[in-house]
Amino acid sequence: YTSHEIGADEHRSWWSQVQRRDDQAYFMYEVGGVPSGVVAFTVIDPFNRNASWAFYSDPDSAKGTGTKMEFLALEHAFNTLKLHKLYCEVFAFNSPVVKLHQKFGFQIEGTFREQRVVDGSYVDVFRLGILAIEWGLNRTSMQSRIDAYTKG
Question: For residue 13, what is the DSSP state?
Answer without folding.
Answer: H
